[in-house]
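Figure S4 source data
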Amino acid sequence: MTLEEKVGQLSKELGWEMYEKDGEHVYVSKKFKDLIAKRPIGALWATLRADPWTKKTLITGLSPQQAAKAINALQKYIIENTRLGIPLLISEEVPHGHMAIGATVFPTAIGQASTWNPKLLEEMASVIAKETYAVGGRNGYGPVLDLARDPRWSRTEESYGEDAYLVGKMGEAVVKGLQGQRLGEKDKIMSTLKHFVAYGVPEGGHNGGFNTIGERELRHHFLKPFESAVRAGAGSIMTAYNSIDGIPCSSNEWLLKQVLRKEWGFQGFVVSDLLSISGLQGNHRTAASGVEAATQSIQAGLDMDLSGVGYGDNLLKAVKEGKVSMQTLDSAVANILRVKFKLGLFENPYVDEGEVLAKVGTMENREIARQVARESIVLLKNENNLLPLKEGVKHIAVIGPNADNIYNQLGDYTAPQPDEKVVTVLDGIRALVGDRIKVQYEKGCAIRDTQHSDIENAKKIAKQADIIIAVMGGSSARDFRTSYEETGAARVEQKTLSDMESGEGYDRATLDFLGDQLKLLKELHKLGKPIVLVTIKGRPLNLSWAQENIPAIVEAWYPGQEGGMAIAEVLFGKYNPAGRLPISVPRSDGQLPVYYNHNKPKHHDYIEMEAKPLYPFGYGLSFSHFTYQNLKVNVVEKSEDFECTISFEVSNTSDIDGDEVVQVYVVDEVSSVVTAVKQLKAFERRHIKAHNTALFSFNLRKNDLKLWGADKRWKTEKGSFKVLVGKSSEDIQLEGEFSLSKDYSL
């Protein structure tokens, strides 16, 4: 390969401008031809993406069939018009479904995590892979493995929550679902893990901002989910925008070479986030020029540039000037080509256009989306068993800005949708009750805009009803009035009165309901009617007033295209909710950050309020009732390891079949370095029939209890450990203990 061909393989260009469309005809754009004429490239990103940032609509974007044609045309052109004919790696966004027109839209990651069901997420990811593969994608950006410990951060909805163990289990399941047993399987795609590392805890919640995480905290928490996913076989990993101890992640040799490759044995390739190489010069100011930024990144172990401008001419110049050796360049190129061979791109670069309709947006896929939505719903409060709604209800008022808004229900990184595809809460309620119950709807107010509220009309409708369903929260719905950064993050502008208050770039200073939402809820409360508050949103919001005054609260996050029906099924008892919070919900902004597994010592209360969150990690109610009993903890120590078996029984003492999510936490009573006050070590969601008892059993070994010692070595230390078994991190039902007589090295 020539120098130019090698550098080209490391460039991943923005793909949505690389095709043109004329009616049903789709063909390669002049921009793509000019790009290839200058230098062959290795990959395209977001070619099939459609949203206001890309300016691709249901009209200007591509249907699934057209998408397959476009990818085939691009592959054919580069194979036939370059000297070596190396196929493109087509990378697509897949956080909660392929971000392309026609694909199935699942709940966002924070909702996926609320299922506490890795097996279901693996099934979901298999669907996403099949739909992406069908239209030509071979690489999916996801899962996002950032720990979200400050809900002011705009991308909280993209995370699996605050806990490393839960995030790791969910991420591992998604990687397996996307990739299958090995890279290159039909209907499977390569996973790219995001964002490496500690991206979700920026100071002040500022997206991409600085954080103060040290090495021990990194190893105990933030690196763990990535390690789990890497060991599950993830083929690619993306660097984060932030820095670690003053070193940007995109030029961090310790992170990319020592930890990722040497310690974990990673064999795939590392890709930058969009423009993060250029960010060394423009944002972090650790490079004085583009050439210096490219040099720092590739020498640190970053293989591929997402943007085409971070490497490209800069890297070419760096090699020619002797700043980057040919050996370093060859190593990066080899990492890319190795993955392409494993994916089978050289043997089969094209997609079968005849299979698209049978794989994308099918009824079977929709049903899986609905099941994920069902299992993601968290019942936060149910005073006097208001839910499920009882027989005798004749008139329901459905009120609120998120009751009948398809885009407010879907979250960020979502393609345009035809109205009939998405089932809103209002749609779901009407579909379930038919003509037997009168249902009236009034929006009442928007998420943010206070100029067009109609609270009086909402009250008028609500006065006539037997019960009020108030659907409120937030929105990550991008629109064509919003402006965007070069990275695709939305730009916050006060003149923009869209509903968007969450999603990439929309960080919050407070967690209060915006606009007139709380005002509307308080006015509805004055009517004296029973109210069910359904929240649809991407981050925890302040529910303190609602907890004190509203009898039933349902958390739905962004539940996806089938979310409205799933919510309706919970409201009317067609589905028994069992979702659990993957993130703590604070009482006040002043508590932040508030997460369950903070380091010792235990928190003391504030003057104004207790230190504990309003709803703790792992919390969620059910229509069933469960009791725990017969905890047994047994330890067998061997020379190199030990096995701690924890078993107990859970009984469904109610008349209703339901799922229970059992959670096992461990406290290291005395340790050589400071550890968490408690740490989740095992969990399982299981269906238990009414008046039945289930036996649960878990095994812990040395790797489950390890710590990063003062000598910078992993070990599990001798001493006493407490076992906490419960329904949440605070609702502990059973307690036990065990001891280890010796240290175990790893």
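Figure S5 source data
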Amino acid sequence: MFGRLLRGHRRRQGWTQEDLAAKTGLSVRAVGKLEAGRVAVPRPQTVNLLAAALGLTGADRDEFLASATPSDERPPAAGVPAQLPPDVSGFAGREAQLARLDAVLGGAASIAVLSGTPGVGKTALAIHWAHRAAGRFPDGQLYVNLRGFDPGGRLTPPAEAVRGFLDALGVPPDAAPASLDSQVGLYRSKVAGRRMLIVLDNARDADQVRPLLPGTPSAVVVVTSRDRLTGLVAGVGAEPVMLDPLSTVESRDLLASRLGPDQVDGDPESVQRIVAACARLPLALTIAAARVRQSGFALRDVAAELDEAGHRLDALDTADRTSQVRAVFSWSYASLSPPAARLFRLLGLHPGPAVSAPAAASLAGHPPSGIRPPLLELIQANLLAEQAPGRYVRHDLLGVYAAELCRAEDGEEERAAAVRRMVDHYTHSAYHADRVVYPLRDPIPIPLDPPAPGTVPERPAGEERALAWFDTEHAALLAIQRRAAEDGFDVAVLQLAWALRTFHVYRGHRAGMATVWRAAIPVAKRIGRLEMAGEAHRCVGLAATYADDYPSADEQYQQALRLFAEAGDDNGQGYTHQSLALLSERRGDPRSALHHAGRAVDRFQASGHDRARAKALNAVGWYHAMLGEHEQALVHCEQSLELLERFTDAYGQAHTWDSLGYIHHRAGHPDRAVECYRRAVELFDELGNHGDGAPTLVRLGDSYAAAGDREAAEGVWRQALAIFTALDHPEAATVAAKLSVR
């Protein structure tokens, strides 16, 4: 196909093969071979050279370049990441920059840095080129918005970006290393040798980018930033691609792509005035075109409006102020119906990064059935984008503009009511989802009041959907908790932290757990809820424990014990001693762990919390077993099991049967161990908890092997290996080694 297109374009120019060879510097023989299809995969530099010589632009150029890509490379393979945002509609110009990016594919540099003033179209260029080149990256595309110049000041930390990439590459949260350095190492190992495209959008500086560089020449990285990122250019040889404002011709082409060539050709003087007033910036030009389309006004009328507000747009050349495009934004806003305009303003109260349709309905106080029309109107006006079905995002500057409008046009009482509904929406939704995931959890210390009128909380059904809801809304929940703290919704700050804990433990979100509970500490102390302050310190300690920061964890646990004792909270002290037992176990001190587990039993006994006491008894038995004290271990675990069966706590029973299997195996009774482990496995299967069940399968295999049944051992080890492999868990290698030994 490439050869046929090449020959067709050459003939349309009226050129011979000799003419084309002379214009490109290629040999006549090379041109002939390309046209005859005797070159399987033309070099990217050659393809770009031919496209430039033939004067190809727009769709013709895209088709020409795509035809040079082997067809088996174009569709993404199943299971590979494909994170690119949608391509830019009506993209125009930037041929020189596109050619430089094309050259990165075949050149020595594998990193390109797109830099330029705000609104110049860095992201648009990066995304458009990425879609055009996606076929050359069969192993997938990764994308992250680093929010380097976020108006709200929220940077995406490298740790959060790397965690997102590991998620996309199939690494479960609980299998990721604790430290950033280790996570970066795992990310680079996953990408090594793979032909991938990585887009790092809106970087603040080189330090934010360096941990995200893959370190393999097979992957191409495109970085966008307002900063020139000289450190990357000098340090790793990145290819700098500087974007200036569009040329006058390119600006006109952009307007023509949005409005149609006939309308643009019909009034060249007004087009020239619009281009000049918009400072040839794609952002302003795109919004100006939307103004023409939505209003139906003549070009000269829009040009006159721009002339009146032109002094505001002059600053777009160099300044970095959120007020630069207010006048242009106002045209789209002025075209909205009253319900859509109100929703747009109220969305300025949402801290982002994305909002669901139900959350938007609660924010506006609308029934869910009535929120779709104003949302669609905002999308049509380019004031909102549908990121995924039912989830909406907006440009950062639009968020600032919406917030300013809300302050100017909506009264203080209306704004406060909207924020109340928004906070209630997320608090009640998270509480419900947490109860679905962990229905046996102790009641929340501060019960929720009914949500404010007009609030429509989400109620995901089933554990899988509830966890998926948390996955989707996690960033928004963290932002909402910050907003609640800023606006004085103290109780909601504590309730949100509480509602997120199960999810944070299940998914291994150590940083998220630490963040929400650190925010809860001063609030709980300020309102005199010492038991919540103690729980906050305990959960911060848990996050530190999971991150292997043992001194910090111990310090937090000691503060928690002090606060729980002051509050007279026996249960809180019991849970803290359980956490201290875990800390001691991870430190390799089972005797200290046994001590704290025993203290937990005493505290739960004092409070009459028998279900918690049952789990603490199981822990006591486990630590006795670790110390070789098998008789004491059996006594405590059997007591635990009796209590847990009374409470029909299948999860606790599964762990206790696992402990009993461990005790019998360590005591030299493999047949009895097999019986206990099999019961644990059955319970984990009934619960659908394969992650916790896999280690039990490994131990069951060990007991089968000790009993002399190698065939049964290999059968359950294979089951465990399949689970660990699916989770990308490091224990997969250990189990594989067991299977390889004969």
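Residues 412-437 form the longest helix (26 residues). Residues 309-323 have pLDDT under 50 and may be disordered.
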